[in-house]
């Protein structure tokens, strides 16, 4: 187990699409149809990304979503955290109760590792995703 | 979501303990008691690590487990994969069905990222865990 949620995957697909179509807004329905993503689920994901400040929702006949800032300034970590909350490698970091919170011998080294992993994901932007 | 399973955490704690007590074998019960890990669960984790070739089970009155090879030659990835199977960042990599397997736009870049993440985890050994 060490994976992105399906919602985070959908979010990345949508942001990549918006980065590649930055000349106008794109509706959730268009993206859902293009990638065969269940439309109600994608709508929720995009609303969440808008609420978290990564997307802007434009109203009107040609309404839809645009990126809230340059694709190069939105990292994969931004998207993962917007959708699933802070990245934590260990159950305790994610707020799960753990009977050995007082004496755990691996938490600190694992947190240091997590910092390295987050750096890699944070160094990768939607722009790079869109170029690949 | 981006976390080790609790079983993998227990496995790391146990291997670190064995690396720090490499002058003899240690029983599952001793480790469970020291770290307040539910004993039946830890027993299963250690049996699995033995089956996967990371631990050796020694029989007898002073029986217990020892590392199957030097702690510096067992990486965090070895333990994670022994317990939870191959690391996959995306649901499809973990064998989940996905309706867009044919047209997914983020799978390849995410696989490349995963290789980098696995390299970091693979570069960290139980020996380093035991020194921290």
Compact overview of the structure:
The longest helix of chain A is centred in the last third of the chain and has 16 residues, at 107-122. Chain A contains 6 helices and 2 strands; from the N terminus they run H-H-H-E-E-H-H-H.
Structure description:
The structure is a homodimer of 132-residue chains. The first copy, chain A, is mainly alpha-helical and 132 residues long. Chain A has a single domain (6-131), classed as Orthogonal Bundle (Arc Repressor Mutant, subunit A). In chain A, 51% of the residues lie in helices and 6% in strands. Chain A has helices spanning 6-20, 28-35, 39-51, 76-84, 107-122, 126-131, and strands at residues 55-58, 64-67. Chain A has a two-stranded antiparallel ribbon. In chain A, a hairpin with a 5-residue loop joins strand 1 and strand 2 (64-67). The longest helix of chain A is centred in the C-terminal third of the chain and has 16 residues, at 107-122. Chain A is elongated, with a radius of gyration of 17 Å. At the A-B interface, helix 1, helix 4 and helix 5 of A face helix 1, helix 4 and helix 5 of B.
